[in-house]
Amino acid sequence: MKPIKVLLAKPGLDGHDQGAKIVARALMDAGFEVIYTGLRQTPEAVARMSLEEDVDVIALSSMAGSHVHFCKKLKPLLEAGGLTDKLWLIGGCLPREDHAALRELGFKGIFPTGSKLDAIVDYIRKNVGDSVKDGVS
Amino acid sequence: MNERAKPELKPVVNESGIEVNPLYTEDDVEKSGGHGMVGLPGEYPFTRGIHRLMYRKQPWTMRQYAGFGNPAETNQRFKYLIANGQTGLNVAFDLPTQIGLDSDDPLAEGEIGRVGMSVDTLHDFEVAFDGIDLNKITVSLTVNGAAAILIAMYLAMAEKRGYDLKQLRGTAQNDILKEFIGRGTWVYPVGPSIKLVGDTIEYCAEHAPRYSPVSVCGYHIRESGATPAQEMAYAFSIAKAYADEAIGRGLSIDEFAGRLSYNFNIFGNIFEQVCKFRAGRSLWAKIMKEEYGAEKPGSMWLRMIAGGGGGGLTFEQPELNIVRGAYYALISALSGAQTMALCSYDEAYTIPTEYSARISLRTMQILIEEMGLTETADPLAGSYYVETMTNQMRDKIAQIMAETDAEGGIVKLISEGVIQARVSAQAYRMQRDIESGLFPKVGVNRYRNEREEDHPVEFHAYKEDDARVQVERLKKVRAERDQAKVDRALMRVRSDAEAGANLMPAIVEAVTAYASVGEITNEMVKVYGRYKEPIRF
Do the strands A109-112 and B12-13 form a parallel or antiparallel pair, or are they unpaired? Predict the structure, then answer.
């Protein structure tokens, strides 16, 4: 069975990567294939890697407040790359009043500080297309 | 004795890996090495504090981390904090500034003034510190990747305002090696990054001998997942790397070691933390004296800011963080810190508001004014438990340092991402332990509110308009400055970098001519290149 493939990116200039690395390990432990980008990714780089690596999940970890700004720039690039059928997630320091805007921008999985690792894993399992899990894709 | 009177006790092991007994006696102190390293406050090996009278003479400096938006707004917050009794400034810069990008750089978009104040040119420093007496209030610059430039800017600003640099005090964080482990505001590869730290040490030793150019941070290594013993061991190994760099330039240890300082974290078990500091103080003194041949007591002092504690605060029931912050402050006071700053209760949500910053400040003031923490030096000394644990923590820290050396040394381990992978694996295990309830956290895995009420957290508002104002100010400075002078200075930065000379004189010339942080950084990148992060799990 082909494992679920996740791109886990650190958007923008934020250097807080402890959370992203913890999530990366949790996803690996769950049997997913994880491509962790490291720090300082531009929207263009995230879109390009998502396409090149043919991932099932595009996940961002943002701790320094520029998440809405970044997602606004990323959305059209992911759309242009034909990645709208992928699962888009975001986690980190995400004030509640920004959640609606993030959802609107296509980030259906929102995991603010305090989220459980297993909740992220379960969410991905439940929401990634069935064809992926069956290894048909 | 009846077996039932002796119930099986589950072993307790602290985060640093040392087993904690239910009872300590003189026997335990002796077995752990005795009282030989205790001494007196103000005397080698300084276990009990670096000064004889400690807080009886002067309480710790209170230095809340602050800065946001444009320099004018930050100047207002500084004045607010000073008016409320804060005794030092701890400047937060926005991410573009910290990694050497100007406000009009496309990569800076959306990040200007967000997590700290935005600085492009000397003009911004002139505004930010306007009306603040730099002899009365010492300023700490929390900057690493762009530290050489901002130190130069601070010195240039002070000189322009007529201060004598020989007397000027202040601190820069300027600990780039830990940025590769946690925090992530690196710019150049590891080699040139260390070289630049050496440049600042060498330059300050000659031109601003009372300025502390480096504050070595265990803090962020701990935040990244290190244990308290690793925090201190890695910080000491990093400090030694900088000291070796400075000595390699022909400086003697006593010419600069007295201006090295430290930044440590305070969350966790009270006794483990206090003993970490007591142990660290004597170990550092021993290293400086025996390994480096330091003769001046000041060179052996572990001067430190001990504060923060962000890693211990929780998103859940945030008001409990006010209580945690108070205990953390108590740890810092019992540990003999020179300077204290506290994370505010809302930091899992936002950068602190004026209100939450004031609560942190008042927390420290209550300890000073009401709780008797300043009356006597090292009040926990002589406790069987504290002295035993201090000895054990000292051994543990020394052991980790020796292992680090045996593995090839801290610089190699950081360059290859080994330390990063190690602490992040520990952070993952800790997170799992918190989620499973194995590691107790009140409000998180104990005593949760079944339905989290709406958190009483007021958000610090980010003003989009600040970015526009900042970019306009930069344009105005560029239009008004003597461009030929800027070009000459920038060319010198590049040629000095190529020649391997100390870059500080060229950078000082450049900032004085109002060259921007981004312009200077770009010249250095042309020579040094950029760091490429090793991804390792």
Answer: unpaired
Q: Give yes or no for a contact between B445 and A128, defined as CB atoms under 8 angstroms apart.
A: no
Q: Do B349 and A28 touch (CB under 8 A)?
A: no
Residue A67 maps to a domain: yes
Phi/psi of residue B528, nearest 5 degrees: -90, -25
Cis, bond preceding B71 (omega within 30 deg of 0): no
Whether A16 sits inside 8 A of B184 (CB atoms) is yes
**What is the reported pLDDT for B449?**
87
> pTM for the full model?
0.96
Q: Which CATH number fits domain B49-436: 3.30.450.180, 3.40.50.300, 2.40.128.590, 3.20.20.240?
A: 3.20.20.240
User: Is the residue at A4 inside a domain?
Assistant: no
Instruction: Please give the pLDDT value at position A137.
Output: 34
pLDDT digits (tens, 9 = 90+) for B248-273: 999 999 999 999 999 999 999 999 99
Please give the Cα distance from B466 to B469 (Å, whole number): 5
Q: What angle do CA A41, A45, A49 make, to 5 degrees?
A: 115
3-state class (DSSP) for residue A113:
coil
Domain count, chain A: 1
For testing contact with chain B, the best of A18, A25, A68, A70 (most B CBs within 10 A): A18
CATH number, domain with residue A58: 3.40.50.280
Confidence at residue A136, expressed as pLDDT on a 0 to 100 scale: 41
Question: What pLDDT was estimated at residue B454?
Answer: 60
Q: Where are the domains of chain B?
A: 49-436
Indicate which of B428, B452, B455 best probes the interface with A, i.e. most A CBs within 10 Å of its own CB: B428
**CB contact, 8 Å: A95 with chain B?**
yes
Over residues B496-527, the pLDDT tens digits come to 999 999 999 999 999 999 999 999 999 999 99
Structure tokens that stand for B113 in this block = 């003034």
Q: Would you report the helix, strand and coil content of chain B in percent, each value rounded to 5?
A: 50, 10, 40
Contact assignment for A14 to B535 by CB distance below 8 Å: no
Which pLDDT value is given to residue A132? 54
- By Cβ distance, the residue of B109, B223, B431 closest to A117 is B431
Nearest residue, CB atoms, A15 vs list B183, B349, B431: B183
pLDDT of residue A131: 52
Q: Do B224 and A114 touch (CB under 8 A)?
A: no
Domain carrying residue A59: 13-35+42-127
Q: Is residue B342 within 8 Å of residue B308, measured between CB atoms?
A: yes
Residue type, B55: Y
d(CA B190, CA B53): 41
**Does the distance separating the beta carbons of B109 and A69 come in below 8 Å?**
yes
SS3 for B218? Answer: coil
- Nearest Cβ partner for B184 among A17, A42, A65: A17
Q: What is the ipTM of this complex?
A: 0.94
Please identify every stretch of chain B with a pLDDT value under 70, giving residue numbers as ranges. 1-6, 452-456, 460
Q: Which of B363, B62, B426 is nearest to B223 (CA)?
A: B426
A36 touches chain B (CB under 8 A): yes
